[in-house]
Structure formats: structure tokens, C-alpha cells
């Protein structure tokens, strides 16, 4: 067995679906690349919705990392047994990073880490309220969120915060580093922008939790008389009109201008982002939207596509109004102002986008210093 100082393996566990089935998977994969370049071996424990086997039968390699998968079940809300099984397969674990992990199970992992004399940290990218339709589910989620954010995570050895909102909350309580969603900007999937003559706008997202507001955007674009195309990726038309039945007639009238592209694989969805003049999304300003950080903003900037959005989270640190995008207070009121700039000027704005803004290489030193602090705390 390696000596404690030689332990260079980190277990990264959470509700991400590797390799790229959700935004969480993209975040943790990039963070793992940074950790690997810092000399650590990363082991993933993710969720597989099709898994029917015991976790010890699920091992495979993903992006050069060991990956183990748990079943999508309520067990992960309270049990740390699967984590302990995987931990037992390695003799050189230095620590654990738990991604937005359920409170009860996270507490179990923390206690295990204390006994095993390894560090335990959280990757925190959200602060949801008790959003659910039935009162029992709302109560359970509310309690879980309160315990995780206010009681358990402050006791951890460290926190990776996705936003300044979360960073400010934890930085005086534990070892905290601020890392927005990161990417490998050199990956070919971000390259190959193809801009045509018409103005093209794209939204990529789902209906789900009422975070993005595609109905606001549809109503705003329906009042624009100029020539454009607005692609909605990730939402089939029938799903949208079932959710917003008042827009059925409006969608028919806008046929050819507002186009629903349905659910697509991630790389295919990125093609619509790359070939757009602007990515558009609108979010109400709440604790949830300020605590998070929109991955779609990161992806759009990395594609070289300016963004039209509301001012939430830390976007004010990256979006320069009129240069690499526009902030709007009301998309319906402000969209005409944007169109008044003219097609040529709007199309030229992509040249002002720094595609390397969220490249992970710019954040390696921050992660390195955070890890050094974690290791020092465990040896003091």
C-alpha cells in the first residue's frame, strides 16, 4: 500500500451521466482532466439509467478514467454503500469530490472519510428550492437542500463553487475555489463556425424546471418583422405546445422563422450553436439562477457565438453588452433594440468573442492551489 503522502487518487461521485448526457457530466469530465494534469488519477461513480447490475460489475473506462455506475434509484439519496464498495477497490485514495450530493448520503461519505483520514469535498453548482408538484416531494427536497447547503457542506474539507454567489457563502467556512463550467477549447467539436446571410438565433434547453423561459423568447421573436431564423433545440414542437397551448396558433403563424429541432445528441446540438449568430436564453433572477452558472453560456462563447440573455449569476464578468452579446431586462422590449443595429453589425460581433474564456488551462493554477490546501489540512 502506498504511503499517505503518495496517495494520488480521487473519487468523483454524483448524479452526472457520463460521458456527456447532461451538463453535470461535461463539468466533472473537464475538472477531472485538470486533476489528471496535476498528477491525480480520477475515478468516477456516476448514474446509469439503464444499469441493472451491482456496482462492482459496472467498471469500464471513460475518457481515460475508471468509471463505475449506480442504478437510478432512491437508494442513492441516503446510502453510501456503493461508494464504499468502489473505495475498497483502491488503496491510494486521497480524497472524494461529491457533486451536488444528497444530504444523507453525503453525511455518510463524510463520516467514512473522517475515519479513513482522507479529505472530503463538494462540487456545488446549484441551490434549488423545494420545487415539486406534490407537497411531500417538496418537503423532502426542501429538507435535503437545507441540510446539504447549510449543515453538511460547510463541514467538508473543501468546496468547488460554480458561481461567486456560492463561493461567497462558503469561502469563510471552508477551503473554497471558484470554478465556472470549463471546457477544452481545443476540442474539434467547438470549431467550424459557418455563418450564412440570414440572422440565425438559437436556444438549446428543455422545459423541465422553470429556469429557462422559451415562451418569453417565442413571444418576443413573433413580433419581429425582420428576416431571421430562431432554432429551438431540445424541445419537440408538440411538447412545447402541450406546455404552452396558448402558443399553438402563434407557432403556426411563425412557421419557417421559429423552428423546433427536437431532442438531439450534444454534438449535434452544438452545431446549431456554432452556426448561429446569437444564442438566446432568458432566466428570472432568483437564488437558483444566481447560484448556478449557465453551461449554455459557456458553450456558446466557446463556439464563438455571442449571447443574448438576462443578467444572472456571474455573467456580468464575462458578457460585455454590445461587444460579445447583449443583456436584456425584458426580451420582448429589448429585442427590437438589438435588431435596430442591422444585420451586418450583428453578424460582425462574433469577432469579439474570446473563445478561450472558459478553457480549463486558464484555471489549472486555481485548482492546484485548492488541492494543495486540502492536502495540507489533512497533514496538519
Task: Outline the fold blueprint.
Layout: E1 9-14, H1 23-37, E2 41-48, E3 60-62, E4 65-71, H2 81-87, E5 93-99, H3 103-116, E6 119-124, H4 135-152, E7 158-161, H5 164-170, E8 175-178, E9 199-204, H6 214-221, E10 228-233, H7 237-243, H8 248-253, E11 258-262, H9 266-274, E12 278-281, H10 287-291, H11 295-302, E13 307-309, E14 325-327, H12 331-339, H13 343-348, H14 364-379
Parallel strand pairs: 1-2, 1-5, 2-4, 5-6, 6-7, 7-8, 9-10, 9-12, 10-11, 12-13, 13-14
Antiparallel strand pairs: 3-4
Protein described:
This protein is of the alpha/beta class. Helices cover 36% and strands 19% of the residues. α3 runs parallel beside α4 and α6 (214-221) packs across α12. The two termini are 22 Å apart.
Category from helices, strands and their pairing: alpha/beta
pLDDT < 50 runs, ≥5 residues: 1-5
Distance between the termini: 22 Å
Which H/E pattern describes the elements? EHEEEHEHEHEHEEHEHHEHEHHEEHHH
User: What would you report as the Rg, rounded to the nearest angstrom?
Assistant: 22 Å
User: How is the biggest beta sheet arranged?
Assistant: 8 strands, mixed
Task: List the strand order in the largest sheet.
Answer: 3-4-2-1-5-6-7-8
Shape: globular
Strand content: 15-25%
> What's the total helix number?
14
Query: How many E-type strands?
Result: 14
What is the typical, i.e. mean, pLDDT? 93
Share of helical residues: 25-40%
Amino acid at each position: 500500500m502506498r504511503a499517505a503522502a503518495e496517495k494520488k487518487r480521487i473519487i468523483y461521485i454524483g448524479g452526472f451521466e457520463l460521458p456527456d448526457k447532461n451538463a453535470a457530466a461535461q463539468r466533472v469530465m473537464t475538472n477531472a482532466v485538470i486533476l489528471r494534469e496535476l498528477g491525480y488519477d480520477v475515478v468516477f461513480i456516476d448514474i446509469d439509467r439503464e444499469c441493472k447490475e451491482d456496482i462492482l460489475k459496472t467498471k469500464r473506462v471513460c475518457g481515460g478514467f475508471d468509471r463505475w455506475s449506480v442504478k437510478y434509484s432512491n437508494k442513492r439519496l441516503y446510502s453510501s454503500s456503493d461508494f464504499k464498495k468502489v473505495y475498497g477497490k483502491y488503496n491510494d485514495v486521497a480524497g472524494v469530490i461529491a457533486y451536488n450530493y444528497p444530504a444523507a448520503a453525503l453525511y455518510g461519505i463524510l463520516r467514512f472519510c473522517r475515519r479513513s483520514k482522507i479529505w472530503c469535498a463538494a462540487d456545488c453548482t446549484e441551490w434549488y428550492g423545494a420545487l415539486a408538484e406534490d407537497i411531500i416531494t417538496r418537503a423532502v427536497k426542501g429538507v435535503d437542500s437545507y441540510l446539504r447547503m447549510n449543515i453538511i457542506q460547510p463541514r467538508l474539507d473543501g468546496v468547488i463553487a460554480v458561481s461567486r454567489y456560492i463561493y461567497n457563502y462558503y469561502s469563510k467556512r471552508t477551503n473554497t475555489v471558484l470554478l465556472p463550467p470549463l471546457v477544452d477549447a481545443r476540442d474539434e467539436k467547438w470549431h467550424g463556425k459557418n455563418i450564412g446571410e440570414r440572422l440565425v438565433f438559437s436556444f438549446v434547453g428543455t422545459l423541465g424546471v422553470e429556469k429557462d423561459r422559451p415562451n418569453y423568447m417565442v413571444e418576443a421573436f413573433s413580433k419581429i418583422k425582420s428576416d431571421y431564423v430562431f432554432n429551438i433545440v431540445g424541445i419537440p414542437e408538440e411538447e412545447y405546445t402541450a406546455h404552452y397551448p396558448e402558443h399553438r396558433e402563434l407557432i403556426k403563424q411563425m412557421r419557417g422563422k421559429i423552428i423546433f429541432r427536437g431532442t438531439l445528441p450534444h454534438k449535434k446540438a452544438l452545431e446549431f450553436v456554432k452556426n448561429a449568430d446569437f444564442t438566446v436564453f432568458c432566466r428570472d433572477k432568483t437564488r437558483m439562477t444566481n447560484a448556478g452558472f449557465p453551461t449554455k453560456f459557456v458553450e456558446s462563447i466557446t463556439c464563438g457565438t455571442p449571447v443574448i440573455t438576462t443578467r444572472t449569476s456571474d455573467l456580468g464578468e464575462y458578457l460585455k453588452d454590445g461587444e460579445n452579446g447583449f443583456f436584456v431586462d425584458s426580451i420582448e422590449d429589448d429585442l427590437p433594440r438589438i435588431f435596430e443595429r442591422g444585420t451586418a453589425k450583428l453578424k460582425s460581433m462574433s469577432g469579439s468573442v474570446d473563445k478561450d474564456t472558459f478553457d480549463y488551462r486558464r484555471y489549472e493554477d486555481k485548482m492546484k492551489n485548492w488541492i494543495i490546501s486540502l492536502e495540507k489540512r489533512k497533514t496538519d
